[in-house]
Amino acid sequence: MDNLKKARENQAKSIIKNLEKRNMTAYYCESKDDCRKKVLEIIGSGKTVSWGGTESSKECGIPEALKANAECTVFDRADYTEDNMKEFYKKAFCCDYFIMGTNAITLDGELVNIDGNGNRLASLIFGPEHVIVLAGMNKVSTDVPEALHRARNIASPPNTLRLGKNTPCAVDGRCHDCLSPDCICNQVVITRRSRVKERIIVLLVNDNLGF
Fold first, then answer.
1. What angle do CA 167, 168, 170 make, to 5 degrees?
2. I need a surface site. Which of 68, 120, 146, 199 has the fewest CB within 10 A?
3. Strands 130-136 and 73-75: what pairing?
4. Dihedral angle, C-alpha 199, 91, 38, 62, nearest 10 °
5. Is residue 124 scored above 80 in pLDDT?
6. Can you name the residues that pair with 104 across neighbouring β-strands?
7. Contact status, residue 114 vs residue 184, Cβ threshold 8 Å
8. What DSSP string runs through 26-79?
9. pLDDT of res. 136
10. What is the bridge-based pairing of β-strands 130-136 and 200-205?
11. Do 105 and 81 contact (CB within 8 A), yes or no?
12. What is the pLDDT of residues 89-101, one digit of tens each?
């Protein structure tokens, strides 16, 4: 193992202890493959599952693996049209497991996220029985101010490009704290603790995931 991966592993183990102090369950995954296997192990069979707009999940091959599991009921936004999107949101909000990435995670175990519609963060806060948060070690920030900077200036600009949004950050790659009609930074949520013990499950992956 090279020194960077070993350092990230040590850092992940320290963050896991801090997440557990905050009523969250956390696991260390050596690779994207390990992450996918752990997600499937946690969910098991006979569960309802959905996810937010997460590039991290795609990079780990999780949606395909879940859809291939006939014993799980999957709610995928791609299977719905604009006319029945509300139906999808309601099902996702009440599922057994909701999967999402995070824009940033602090060394102390706080999750920092920015959202456009708010469905992803609504599910993080309340609704699904369990929330699985995928966090590549590239998402680690020293503290909340640095995490907010990361969410606004590193995660949001490529997300606006992915979604085809016309915002100032899509043009020059930095946050302008805009009020654009296309703004995807409408909700900012800092999760410092899970009220329900072990409801939030964080997988720290020793790789770069998402934006």
1. 65
2. 68
3. unpaired
4. -150
5. yes
6. 112
7. yes
8. EEEESSHHHHHHHHHHHH-SS-EEEE-S-HHHHHTTHHHHHHT-TTSEEE-GGG
9. 98
10. parallel
11. no
12. 999 999 999 999 9
- State yes or no: pLDDT of 151 exceeds 70: yes
What is the dihedral angle through the alpha carbons of 151, 157, 158, 161, rounded to the nearest 10 degrees?
140
**At residue 95, what are phi and psi to the nearest 5 degrees?**
-80, 170
Structure tokens that stand for 206 in this block: 């020793």
Dihedrals φ, ψ of 58, to 5°?
Answer: -65, -45
DSSP bridge pairs for 188: 114
Q: Where are any strands of DSSP class E within 102-176? A: 104-106, 111-115, 130-136, 140-141
What integer pLDDT is reported at residue 77 of this predicted model?
A: 92
Burial 64-89 (b: 16+ CB within 10 A, else e): ebbeeeeebebbeeeebeeeeeeebb
pLDDT at res. 5: 93
- Sequence-distant (6+) residues with CB within 8 A of 85 are 77
Q: Would you say residue 1 has pLDDT above 80?
A: no
DSSP-based three-state secondary structure for 134: strand
Residue 14 tokens, joined: 């320290």
Q: What's the pTM?
A: 0.96
Span 28-77, pLDDT tens digits: 999 999 999 999 999 999 999 999 989 999 999 999 999 998 899 999 99
DSSP 3-state of 111: strand
